[in-house]
Specification:
173 residues; four-stranded mixed β-sheet; 5 helices
């Protein structure tokens, strides 16, 4: 039996075999879901493999932050005692609202002020952190908090700021 996450935005890394079993099981259920909604997906050449494609997309893309290990984030000594702001903006956010299971997309803006004689992390690592946390079902507010808390755990800083602006399809007309 697959371990169930107690929170939609949780994480439990899975093996490749576990992910494949998840895909197989989810595809069966998605096929039943389509049928329950009145679609004969197997009769349509364009959608007959849709249940498996959807299940694969969920495991390998939409919820990959829930089923993969935390990305490796290398810290470096702040040898120059830099005490200005480190900022990375326009970081792509692709996530899923846990209330409606509809997507939200936008941009993240992440900044921190390193402590002298402390540690710094590269700008590309900020992108990696945002993407890993974004790729799971959740609320935008929770995503913002998770990114903040991860940075707080990784480096000592004088301050951390995280802002996300996103368009939610659950709120679209």
């Amino acid at each position: 039996m697959t371990l169930l996450l107690q929170q939609a935005n949780g994480n439990h890394p899975r093996t490749e075999q576990e992910k494949e079993r998840m895909i197989e099981e989810a595809a069966k259920h998605y096929a039943a879901f389509l049928t329950a909604l009145g679609f004969d997906y197997e009769a349509d050449h364009n959608s007959k493999d849709t249940p498996r494609r959807v299940a694969k997309a969920w495991v390998h893309d939409i919820i990959k932050g829930s089923v993969t290990a935390k990305p490796k984030i290398t810290q470096f000594p702040n040898n120059d005692d830099y005490n200005g702001m480190v900022f990375q903006g326009d970081i792509d956010v692709v996530s899923l609202c846990s209330h409606h299971n509809l997507g939200f997309v936008g941009k993240a803006y992440v900044a921190y002020i390193p402590k002298p004689n402390g540690q710094v992390i590269g700008l590309s690592k900020l992108n990696r952190i945002v993407d890993w946390y974004a790729r799971r079902p959740q609320l935008q507010e929770s995503l913002t908090q998770q990114i903040h808390d991860e940075l707080k755990e990784l480096i000592e800083s004088e301050g951390i700021a995280v802002m996300i602006e996103a368009n939610h399809t659950c709120c679209s007309n």
